[in-house]
Amino acid sequence: MKPSATGRILLWRGGSIWIGFAGEPAEPHAHHAVQIALPFGGRVRFQIPEREWQDYDAALVAAHQPHAFEARNQFMATLFVEPESLEGRVLQRRARDHGVVALGTADIKKESEALASAYQARVSGEELIALARATIAKIAGSQATPKIPGDPRVTRAIERIRERLGETVSLSAIAADVHLSPDRFRHLFLDETGVGLRPYVLWLRLETSLAAYVAGSSLTDAAHAGGFADSAHLSRTFKKMFGISPASVQAE
């Protein structure tokens, strides 16, 4: 199997960075994260439904936006930001009406060069994450942007969901935890996150499995870590959300 991505994948609460070299194109997919595609000295290509392929020096992709992606052999970073975070809310508002928008590279030249240099120098994961988060903050302008608060009940619900990923997550139980009726909670959660509870839980489970996989677990063990029945179930979900097979990802 030809690789779809080769490099380092690091996750933190609310985001992740995939940095290295792109391989085979990603088929049409959609995921619960705002995406920043940041090539180092080249270009990337995106296609959204009913539009032609478009080239970008750097791009911002809205959460839940179906898209295909191509950047063969390109040295680059892809940053994923959960839309519930401060930066994610800012970025999602910027991209949601367009699907994919171009980013000006001049404004983030310093951050981009720092990320590329850090990867080549094999810095620690903590240092690379710090640089990734600084890049996201610069793009979002969150240093100068007033906070965009989410509904505290949804924030509490997400905490409960994360605590229960290893077990069955019931909508009625989570709704009761935040003192809402199931119907009211269902609508509020969808309004705040842009996705229903079940697909949101699936996204968090996928993150858990991805973290295990890049840490060295087999696909089967990574699947079980995220609560998937088996590696086939994980692979189907991974391809639906990222457009590539997890087995095609060569994590360093």
Q: What can you tell me about this protein's structure?
A:
The model has no long low-confidence stretch (mean pLDDT 93). The chain has helices spanning 86-95, 109-120, 125-140, 152-163, 171-177, 182-193, 197-214, 219-225, 231-242; strands at 5-12, 15-22, 26-29, 34-39, 44-47, 54-56, 59-61, 67-70, 75-81, 100-102, 249-251. The strands form two sheets. Strands 10-7-4-9-2-1-11 form a seven-stranded mixed sheet. A four-stranded antiparallel sheet has the order 3-8-5-6. A hairpin with a 2-residue loop joins strand 1 (5-12) and strand 2. The protein has two domains: 5-140, Jelly Rolls, CATH 2.60.120.10; 152-251, Arc Repressor Mutant, subunit A (Orthogonal Bundle). Helix 5 (171-177) packs across helix 6, helix 7 packs across helix 8 and helix 7 packs across helix 9 (231-242). It is globular and about 50 Å long. The protein is of the alpha+beta class and 252 residues long. The chain has nine helices and eleven strands.
Tags for this model:
252 residues, alpha+beta, Jelly Rolls, 2 domains, seven-stranded mixed beta sheet, four-stranded antiparallel beta sheet, 11 strands
Detail the topology: elements first, then pairings:
Layout: E1 5-12, E2 15-22, E3 26-29, E4 34-39, E5 44-47, E6 54-56, E7 59-61, E8 67-70, E9 75-81, H1 86-95, E10 100-102, H2 109-120, H3 125-140, H4 152-163, H5 171-177, H6 182-193, H7 197-214, H8 219-225, H9 231-242, E11 249-251
Parallel strand pairs: 1-11
Antiparallel strand pairs: 1-2, 2-9, 3-8, 4-7, 4-9, 5-6, 5-8, 7-10
Helix pairs in contact: 1-3, 2-3, 5-6, 7-8, 7-9, 8-9
